[in-house]
Specification:
Blueprint: H1 22-30, H2 43-59, E1 61-63, H3 69-78, H4 81-93, H5 102-113, E2 115-117, H6 125-142, H7 159-165, H8 180-188, H9 191-209
Antiparallel strand pairs: 1-2
């Protein structure tokens, strides 16, 4: 995979020292000094899908009601694989498709009794439920939050993001002057620069404006708790 990025056939994902995880290896490649991994139009998307699928496969499991376990076990063994395959194709084409025979109704009934647990998989429904539980726990302990703040940094217009996306940049911050279309194209073609800028901007806001993990008090006083998340 990616012969244009690994022309000698070595150094690819999963082919290096086993002590280095795939996520750490990908981060290392995406921060490579000449940025050719960052600006590749396919690498970031494919490795993200690879990590997500691997994580959901390894860290996901099914849970059922304890009282229904023997019943569901028997239904799992007796359900028709062809009906499941037919139903999956039907739902892929139309997510609101209704069952048309008894076998498909049994599949729906089984899916209703099964719950997929994948709280360690980012973006999964269970992960969002976990975040909601954490927020509810904070509210239960500290009370309702005083502030709700939404941040949407203008990445394509910010000189730091443009600097991070610029392939000709060096360790010294010397931002060049580009047109609006050149800036937008530069940032769009480099999602890693966008992520770095977003992380830096939000961390700076939490530390300097809100006083979180900082020696000084924030603009709105001393925060006893906070919860930050991103849209998924």
């Amino acid at each position: 995979m990616f012969p244009w990025l690994f022309p000698y056939g070595s150094g690819g994902i999963g082919t290096v020292n086993e002590t280095l995880s795939d996520s750490e290896h990908i981060c290392h490649l995406l921060l490579y000094h000449d940025k050719h991994f960052q600006v590749d139009p396919e690498f970031s998307l494919i490795v993200f899908n690879h990590i997500t699928i691997k994580s959901s496969t390894i860290r996901s499991h099914l849970i059922v009601n304890n009282k229904k376990f023997p019943e569901i076990q028997n239904r799992l063994l007796s359900i028709s694989p062809s009906a499941l395959e037919s139903l999956s194709i039907k739902l892929k084409n139309d997510s609101s498709a209704a069952p048309i025979n008894d076998e498909e109704k049994e599949c729906y009934h089984l899916l209703k009794d099964l719950d997929l647990v994948a709280w360690k998989v980012k973006g999964s429904i269970t992960n969002k439920k976990k975040q909601r539980s954490e927020i509810n726990s904070l509210i239960d302990h500290w009370g309702s939050p005083s502030w709700y703040i939404t941040i949407a940094p203008a990445d394509i217009k910010h000189p730091i993001c443009v600097y991070l996306a610029d392939e000709s940049c060096n360790d010294k911050f010397t931002p060049a002057v580009y047109t609006a279309s050149e800036q937008a194209k530069m940032v769009i073609n480099n999602p890693v620069a966008h992520a770095q800028f977003f992380h830096y901007f939000v961390t700076l806001f939490l530390r300097e404006i809100l006083g979180i993990n900082s020696e000084h008090e924030g603009w709105f006083g001393h925060p006893v708790a906070h919860y930050a998340t991103v849209e998924q």
